[in-house]
Amino acid sequence: MNTPSLEDIRQQFPSLKRKFNGYPIAYLDGPGGYQVPARVIDAIADYLVNMNANVGTEFDTAQRTSSMLQNAREIFADFFNCTWDEVIFGANMTTLNFFLAQTLCREMKTGDRVLITEIDHEANRGPWLQLTDRGILVDEVALDPVSCTLDMTDYQRKLDRKTKVVALNYASNGVGTISDVKKMIDMARDTGAYTVVDAVHYASHGPLDVQELKADFLLCSAYKFFGPHIGVLYGRKNVLEKLNPLNLRTQSKGPPYMMETGTLHHEGIAGAGAAVEFIADAGATLGGDFLEQSGKKNDSRRNRIVAGLRVFDQYEQGLCRYLLEELSQNIKGITIYGPPAGHPRTSTVSFTYQGVHPEQVAKYLGSKGIFVWAGHFYAIRLVERLGLSDQGGLIRVGITPYNTKSELDRLLEALDDGKSLKAYGQTIE
């Protein structure tokens, strides 16, 4: 296995020094939320000490807050490859998407349709399903449960002129499948439908380029890429300008502020900006090959962000291949769920363990300081289609840039000890 060393990256995460039950903690729970580097913690603390105020007045801390918010928008504009006034902050992706759904609903009439998918997180399904009480029809693109990929023939068949919104999944937080969202967006644009991309899981595994995708809206969560718990929404400016969202009469009616109700999570936004800068710095120090291949210099923050994400993905994919091979060849009773070899995927590996409930597996591993998720991960429709709802769903391992091969070896050793794993469940109520 040939993967670059990211040991210097690990040193920037204070939480990696923690232990549980005497074991160093292996945080293999990345799809549920990343650990944060020290600079993110420092940015949040700096905001609370030196800038803590609301905006809209002239004293020093209020002005500092305004400047921080503008700077964060410019950072995320480079992250998305858009303009700063297309960057919208919110409490979390789910809340932003509910607000977006209610806004776009005002553009629709009874009998109009929304297309969602069976592979999506419920945060990109539920807000649209809620529109059925307004007379909006909601249909879903089928999942092929064997390949864990979307059925593109079914998508093409269901996409028509009555479709006003297509809500797409960039990468599955359940099984790691990366979908061909560019192709799906192009098809939707031909029918005149708005496109809404859930990039929450993808955003930490590859660069986002909304100009290339031509998406109307794209959502992500900063805590899924080294930041605090806030959501971020990209909205195409010429689309935003046509919308009439619910807001207060005291609120600015222009983008991006028209979509931001109340006081924002200022300290979270400060930390989120620092998280993106962390990625950019990794690109500057480790991403030389990617910068040279593209013929670009590292003096552009956008280029450094792209290089950083590609470095991280290269590292993660090496570990992912190792884990998939070891699980499939050397651990008895494992069934892996995910896209076939050669299909684009993230470094998220999900599986079941024959005869052992996923929750029992996760508790056993957790007792050894190996933190993984079990269940449906809010991708509940996916788990239903895989026929695993009654069996407790999946066990999910998420590989991040701060994980190591030795941590995966600890995981594999624990899983290989089937006798101890099954016996552990006897002590669980």
Kindly summarize this structure in a few lines:
This protein has 429 residues and is of the alpha/beta class. It folds into two domains: 7-37 and 313-427, Aspartate Aminotransferase, domain 1; 40-275, Type I PLP-dependent aspartate aminotransferase-like (Major domain) (Aspartate Aminotransferase, domain 2, 3-Layer(aba) Sandwich).
Comma- or semicolon-separated keywords:
429 residues; alpha/beta; Aspartate Aminotransferase, domain 1; Aspartate Aminotransferase, domain 2; 2 domains; seven-stranded mixed beta sheet; four-stranded antiparallel beta sheet; globular
Which secondary structure elements does this structure contain, and how are they paired or packed?
Elements: H1 7-10, E1 19-20, E2 23-24, E3 26-27, H2 38-50, H3 60-80, E4 87-90, H4 93-105, E5 113-117, H5 126-129, E6 137-141, E7 143-144, E8 149-150, H6 152-158, E9 163-169, H7 181-191, E10 194-198, H8 210-213, E11 217-221, E12 231-235, H9 237-240, H10 266-286, H11 288-294, H12 301-330, E13 334-337, E14 348-353, H13 358-367, E15 370-371, E16 373-375, H14 380-385, E17 394-398, H15 405-416, H16 418-424
Parallel strand pairs: 3-15, 5-6, 5-9, 9-10, 10-11
Antiparallel strand pairs: 1-2, 4-12, 7-8, 11-12, 13-14, 14-17, 16-17
The overall pLDDT average reads 95
Based on CA atoms alone, the radius of gyration comes out at 22 Å
Strand content: 15-25%
**Number of separate structural domains:** 2
* CATH class bucket of the largest domain: Alpha Beta
- Identify the overall geometry: globular
Strand line-up in the sheet with most strands = 4-12-11-10-9-5-6
Biggest beta-sheet profile: 7 strands, mixed
* CATH fold call of the largest domain: Aspartate Aminotransferase, domain 2
CATH superfamily of the largest domain: Type I PLP-dependent aspartate aminotransferase-like (Major domain)
CATH architectural label of the largest domain: 3-Layer(aba) Sandwich
**What is the helix tally?**
16
